[in-house]
Design a protein that fits this description.
Elements lengths: L2 H12 L5 E2 L2 H7 L13 E3 L4 H14 L3 E4 L16 E4 L6 E5 L4 E4 L5 H10 L16 H6 L7 H4 L6 E8 L4 E4 L13 H4 L7 E9 L7 E8 L5 H11 L2 E8 H8 L13 E8 L3 H16 L3 E6 L3 H12 L1 H5 L5 E6 L5 H15 L4 E7 L4 E7 L6 H21 L24 H14 L13
Parallel strand pairs: 2-4, 3-4
Antiparallel strand pairs: 1-2, 5-6, 6-9, 7-8, 7-9, 10-12, 10-13, 11-12, 11-15, 14-16, 15-16
GO molecular function, one term: oxidoreductase activity
Keywords: FAD, Flavoprotein, Oxidoreductase
Protein name: FAD/FMN-containing dehydrogenase
Length: 463
Amino acid sequence: MTTEQTFLVRLAERLPAARLRTDADTLLEHGRDWTRLHTPAPSAVAFPESIDEVQAIVRLANETGGHIVPSGGRTGLSAGAVATAGEVVVSFDRMNHILGFDAVDRSVTVEPGVVTQTLQEYARSVGLFYPVDFAARGSAQIGGNIATNAGGIKVIRYGMTRERVSGLKVVTGRGDLLDINRGLVKNATGYDLRHLFIGSEGTLGLIVEATLTLVEPPREPAVMLLGLSGIDVLMSVFARLRERVQLSAFECFSDRALAHVLARGLSAPFDTPAPWYVLAEFDADSEEAVAAAMEAFEAGVEAEEVLDGVLSQSETQRLALWRLREDITESIAHRLPYKNDIAVRVAQVPEFLTEMQALFAAEYPQFEVIWFGHIGDGNLHISVLQPADMAREVFIAECERVSEHLFATLARYGGSVSAEHGLGLVKKPYLHYSRPAEEIAYLRAIRQVFDPSGVLNPGKLFD
């Protein structure tokens, strides 16, 4: 009997059959994420309902030599939640309760399986706002958001998930339960372990509870969508808007990206075609704020940087304009894109993007490349679309070849090979482009402290 089989037998003694599933459909669904680049092969999926059960699972893994892959909403794009080698997937679908709200602290305590949109709706019900937001909000879970330090569309104003976490309960790879920071605003008592677990992709411990801070809701948000004359004017348009209004988001996408969205039946925002578009969301709670936004638009037109634009006049129109940006990923999903999620300093975006467009034109002449991103925080998303007549394995190999050129260039800019999707299995080979060997050695040492037996998410981040 293998160690994984022994682990499974021992688990079956602790969990009822309904919460330890081995049927093919459950294994397939919970053994993969959105990457679809690896074949899922878990031995079972466990559905704990309490912290005690999570601890018991981790301790059994240590006793038997078994391995665990944590699973949230599985919306990741780096194969961080993929089980490929007979591991037991630990799903937090049943640990999905909002445990409490503190009106004075403006904090909410949740289990890891709470869906991001559910938390957003709860925050609105108490007159507040949970600002971590992205297109997968209806599926992604809070535990996964924390494990990958999720960003999204409002980072420019509110920061990453890291800024929202005031307390964590974590079951380490040893099976110990840590209650970290306990919601304190100030706590100068040595190392803040929260920030090790945030973004650790389940390699140090399993997040079993989180206390998150909420904020005041935006004041009458409005969206301005602008068509730009070229990517070279992006930063001047950004600077002009940022000087005049309180930006919550500043997103960019190419005409090719927009074309795929419009092909699904949405209406074009205006008649004038443009090679690039930006979507800016800002507080429009006064006539002065709206007037300032219009001044920025008119100045852009005079400078021949802005070709056309539209300002939302209602909540319905604001949401419709957002769809032009947020529907990009779904509109190209059927083309099985190869994705990269990278970051450079905000000021470097136009120069880097121009260099990358030239690289892809030379290296990918037969491929369609879709660009979009959170330009206000320096994050670019690159999706290379697979030609219909090309075999999948040939396409992936070609993309991986060009990725080496991409990341080598990124290293010259001091950028990150993964802005908000983590490393997982997909980005693991490229970590050295963003982190020097000395840093990676420290990362390995930290992992050894919290998970000395290597039971948690094996093969992720580094071997």
